[in-house]
């Protein structure tokens, strides 16, 4: 101790100044290297070394499974070409306004649909259910005005006026089924009347569609009406518990109109097959629609993850996996979950019930919170049914953000996460719902630590330069 005291007493202020400048310079270099490594590789170098090399030496183990290996670049490039950033899609599983959305409003006093969402639906109805030849049929002229009405009662009144002019006006029955029917049973009755009228009009249009461009437009409209009615009838059967009947109706509809794949009827089919627990049939549908050249959806990505998780989730344990490593089946399941989370990062919080659900909107934004709400609303029960699936999801989903810490700027398998989703989701989702806005940029702890260390060392160097005698006394003390 006396030797150390003598040594310190002989040191001059220049030594302390040189020491603090050197430490400041070294900590600055460490900070710059940490920042560069994080920007290039997405992880903190110090944290990576401590987790990979130091923790095993002191007996620790990381609980979460390692991130999966990279997928092929071909799928990434194809996904970029096929994934529009902020296109709004019709929700394949949207509810019935009269029988479901209105019931929610009666009970809670809250409006479940936004004006923007309903306005998009009005535009859809005008595109699907009207054409240039409506002036030839008075009932269709009335319905053309009905779809533009903002007041629900005015629309319903116009539908009855159209039926007075033509008792076989299919679109009038569609409007009544959607908005006037107070139960699914009532809606199904209206849709059956619409189906009878729609099939008759469709056959007439088929016979004369080649006569002129106007007749071709009329056939397209009548086809849209028929497909819409059959799909909604299948959804009514699904809601009323006649699931096998619903599956048959959906399969028949997809075979009869294979070119209308943009309506995403296969997502209705997937949900119904999951309810039947017909997992082999679900896999067959996924094999057809989970293709590199086709646009993805949360239903496709998360259903694929669910099937792979089903094979291993019952026996999966994070503690056991960290000791023995992951099996091939477990790696496939983890990779599928990472893929799904990268596509839509909002879904896990709803499936894990960390965030409350609301009724899904009539339109969704792919990769957005609105799509996550719509998926979880119908598929949460399917995840709960498979033992251990939610546990596996809970243990692995956050690893996606360690693998891609800047999802707004770069992606692994898909397009970089679109930055415009928050604005669009706020328009689609009701005001009382807290819109999910992550993933957000988060710097690792060691980047903050090295920045603080660099700043502290620089401050010491400055103080030593300005007050050398005082800093020497402080250092010796």
List the helices and strands and how they pair.
Blueprint: H1 2-10, H2 13-41, H3 45-57, H4 73-82, E1 88-90, H5 97-108, H6 115-129, H7 138-146, H8 152-165, H9 170-180, H10 184-208, H11 213-239, H12 243-256, H13 265-276, H14 279-289, H15 298-310, H16 318-324, H17 328-343, H18 347-351, E2 363-365, H19 369-385, H20 389-396, H21 399-403, H22 421-428, H23 445-466, H24 468-476
Helix pairs in contact: 2-23, 2-24, 7-8, 8-9, 9-10, 10-11, 11-12, 12-13, 13-14, 14-15, 15-17, 23-24
**Major sheet size, sense and barrel closure:** 2 strands, antiparallel
* Count of all domains: 2
Assembly form of the protein: single chain
Order of helices and strands: HHHHEHHHHHHHHHHHHHHEHHHHHH
- Number of separate strands: 2
How would you sum up the global shape?
elongated
User: Can you count the helices?
Assistant: 24
Secondary-structure class: mainly alpha
Low-confidence stretches: 60-84
Proportion in β-strands: under 5%
Q: Classify the helix fraction into a percent range.
A: 55-70%
In angstroms, what separates the terminal alpha carbons? 14 Å
Strand order of the largest sheet: 1-2
Q: Can you give the mean pLDDT?
A: 82
For the CA atoms, what is the radius of gyration?
A: 31 Å
């Amino acid at each position: 101790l006396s030797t150390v005291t003598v040594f310190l007493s002989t040191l001059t202020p220049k030594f302390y100044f040189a020491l603090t400048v050197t430490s400041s310079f070294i900590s600055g270099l460490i900070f710059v290297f940490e920042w560069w490594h994080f920007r290039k590789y997405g992880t903190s170098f110090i944290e990576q070394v401590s987790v990979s090399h130091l923790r095993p030496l002191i007996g620790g183990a990381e609980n979460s499974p390692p991130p999966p290996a990279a997928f092929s670049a071909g799928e990434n490039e194809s996904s970029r070409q096929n994934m529009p950033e902020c296109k709004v899609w019709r929700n394949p599983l949207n509810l019935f306004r009269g029988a479901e959305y209105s019931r929610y409003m009666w009970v809670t006093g809250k409006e479940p649909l936004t004006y923007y969402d309903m306005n998009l639906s009005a535009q859809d109805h005008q595109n699907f259910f009207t054409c240039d030849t409506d002036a030839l049929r008075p009932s269709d002229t009335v319905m053309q005005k009905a779809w533009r009405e903002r007041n629900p009662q005015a629309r319903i009144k116009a539908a009855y006026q159209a039926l007075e002019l033509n008792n076989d006006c299919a679109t009038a029955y569609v409007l009544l089924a959607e908005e006037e029917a107070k139960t699914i049973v009532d809606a199904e009755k209206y849709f059956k009347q619409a189906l009878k009228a729609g099939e008759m009009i469709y056959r007439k249009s088929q016979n004369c569609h080649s006569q002129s461009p106007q007749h071709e437009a009329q056939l397209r409209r009548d086809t849209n009406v028929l497909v819409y009615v059959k799909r909604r009838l299948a959804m009514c059967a699904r809601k009323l518990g006649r699931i096998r009947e619903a599956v048959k109706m959906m399969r028949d509809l997809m075979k009869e109109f294979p070119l209308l794949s943009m309506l995403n009827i296969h997502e209705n089919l997937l949900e119904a097959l999951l309810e039947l627990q017909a997992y082999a049939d679900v896999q067959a549908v996924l094999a057809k629609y989970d293709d590199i050249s086709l646009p993805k959806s949360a239903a496709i990505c998360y259903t694929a993850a669910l099937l792979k998780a089903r094979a291993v989730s019952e026996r999966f344990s994070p503690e056991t996996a960290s000791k023995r490593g992951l099996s091939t089946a477990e790696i496939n399941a983890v990779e599928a979950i990472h893929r799904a989370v990268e596509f839509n990062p909002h879904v896990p919080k709803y499936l894990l019930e960390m965030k409350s659900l609301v009724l899904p909107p009539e339109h969704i934004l792919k990769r957005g919170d609105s799509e996550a709400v719509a998926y979880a609303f119908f598929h949460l029960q399917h995840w709960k049914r498979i033992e251990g699936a939610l546990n596996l999801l809970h243990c692995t989903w956050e690893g996606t953000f360690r693998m891609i810490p800047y999802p707004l700027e770069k992606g692994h398998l898909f397009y970089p996460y679109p930055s415009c989703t928050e604005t669009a989701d706020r328009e689609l989702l009701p005001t009382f719902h807290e819109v999910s806005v992550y993933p957000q940029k988060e710097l690792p702890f060691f980047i903050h630590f090295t920045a603080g260390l660099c700043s502290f060392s620089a401050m010491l160097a400055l103080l030593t330069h300005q007050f050398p005698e005082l800093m020497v006394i402080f250092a010796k003390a």
